[in-house]
């Protein structure tokens, strides 16, 4: 394959813009992926930016082409996912790039969806150079923390991608002996939680949490005027368990779905078009997700706080030895005020080493 016509710094800038575009719309595109696309001139000027619109509307490449207008001809396309090659509710993006007269196409992830794949081959057949930027696929140990990871894994698995989220003290407790848990983490961490909620298809809790906390499960932020507002994108509210939730006034007011068990909930959410869900349940529900093999990512908000005793993050042991525990790989670290957010994915157990 010929060397890319784009200089490394131009390609990196275009990639950053494409990833940002995809992350901006994450949570609004399911069951489609939150793709970002950028058109850039040979001199490095971005002439078109696009992101996937809600289902039935334009895909990222088409938005970018229309944004660029006449400048699209001869420009280089940088896309976070291989352009699709099928007719669905919209036309194939590969053909749109051909018609626009782009000079080359660079994409990050190969499309794991067999129905939509084949865009790279179609582009090459039309004489357009295509460059796969080498990101590993979902079954090849890829832990890059980008906006497409949940969708890629969901598509490969045929079920929704599940992220388990919890807040804890540095010594591993989610609540003190007296049961108090608000607030282990500070304002910046709580703001980050709400931003993350706005990018998920659904939030899942158990009936125990619903009855104890009467949560609203909305995605909120504080305006410059100091008022509370809702993000435009709101996740579905889901509760697992058989208990009567009549007394949960916030859920009754806002609406929610209730399922008897985890597999039933995940199957229903997949059929509804959800691909990326966040579990915010208590120790019992989190342990159930781990035990049943539904832990695709973990978000641990860690406060610099020592409790010594209290309520553990999980209700039951994952295993009886270190070898039987769930080994995780860190994919991202964020400092949020005085707290730390570790984003992790299941990883291979490392080789035993002498201490």
From TrEMBL:
Cofactor: Zn(2+)
Molecular-function GO term, any one: 5-amino-6-(5-phosphoribosylamino)uracil reductase activity
Keywords assigned by UniProt, alphabetized: Hydrolase, Metal-binding, Multifunctional enzyme, NADP, Oxidoreductase, Riboflavin biosynthesis, Zinc
Involved pathway(s): Cofactor biosynthesis; riboflavin biosynthesis; 5-amino-6-(D-ribitylamino)uracil from GTP: step 2/4; Cofactor biosynthesis; riboflavin biosynthesis; 5-amino-6-(D-ribitylamino)uracil from GTP: step 3/4
Catalysed conversion reaction: 2,5-diamino-6-hydroxy-4-(5-phosphoribosylamino)-pyrimidine + H2O + H(+) = 5-amino-6-(5-phospho-D-ribosylamino)uracil + NH4(+); 5-amino-6-(5-phospho-D-ribitylamino)uracil + NADP(+) = 5-amino-6-(5-phospho-D-ribosylamino)uracil + NADPH + H(+)
UniProt record similarity statement: In the C-terminal section; belongs to the HTP reductase family.
NCBIfam families the UniProt entry points to: eubact_ribD
PANTHER family linked: 2,5-DIAMINO-6-RIBOSYLAMINO-4(3H)-PYRIMIDINONE 5'-PHOSPHATE REDUCTASE, DIHYDROFOLATE REDUCTASE FAMILY PROTEIN (AFU_ORTHOLOGUE AFUA_8G06820)
Protein name (record): Riboflavin biosynthesis protein RibD
Natural source organism: Corynebacterium propinquum
């Amino acid at each position: 394959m010929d060397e890319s016509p784009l200089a490394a710094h131009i390609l990196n800038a275009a990639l950053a813009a494409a990833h940002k575009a995809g992350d901006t719309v994450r949570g609004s595109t399911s069951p489609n992926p939150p793709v970002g696309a950028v058109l850039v001139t040979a001199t490095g000027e971005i002439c078109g930016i696009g992101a996937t619109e809600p289902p039935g509307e334009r895909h990222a490449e088409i938005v970018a082409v229309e944004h660029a207008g006449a400048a699209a001809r001869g420009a280089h396309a940088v896309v976070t996912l291989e352009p699709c090659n099928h007719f669905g509710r919209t036309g194939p993006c590969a053909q749109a790039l051909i018609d626009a007269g782009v000079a080359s196409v660079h994409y990050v992830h190969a499309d794991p969806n067999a129905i939509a794949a084949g865009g790279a081959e179609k582009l090459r057949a039309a004489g357009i150079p295509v460059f796969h930027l080498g990101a590993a696929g979902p079954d090849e140990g890829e832990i890059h923390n980008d906006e497409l990871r949940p969708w890629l894994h969901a598509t490969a698995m045929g079920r929704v991608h599940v992220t388990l989220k919890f807040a804890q003290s540095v010594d591993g407790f989610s609540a003190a002996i007296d049961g108090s848990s608000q607030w282990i983490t500070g304002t910046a961490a709580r703001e980050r939680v709400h931003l993350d909620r706005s990018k998920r298809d659904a939030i899942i809790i158990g009936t125990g949490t619903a009855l104890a906390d009467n949560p609203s499960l909305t995605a909120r932020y504080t305006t410059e005027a100091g008022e509370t507002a809702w993000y435009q994108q709101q996740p579905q509210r889901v509760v697992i368990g058989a208990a009567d939730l009549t007394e949960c006034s916030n859920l009754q007011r806002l609406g929610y779905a209730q399922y008897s068990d985890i597999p039933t909930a995940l199957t229903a959410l997949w059929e509804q078009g959800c691909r990326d869900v966040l579990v915010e349940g208590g120790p019992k529900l989190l342990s159930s997700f781990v035990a049943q093999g539904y832990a695709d990512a973990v978000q641990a908000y860690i406060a610099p706080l020592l409790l010594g005793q209290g309520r553990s993050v999980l209700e039951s042991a994952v295993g009886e030895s270190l070898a039987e525990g769930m080994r995780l790989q860190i994919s991202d670290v964020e400092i949020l005020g005085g707290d730390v957010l570790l984003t992790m994915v299941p990883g291979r157990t490392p080789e035993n080493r002498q201490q």
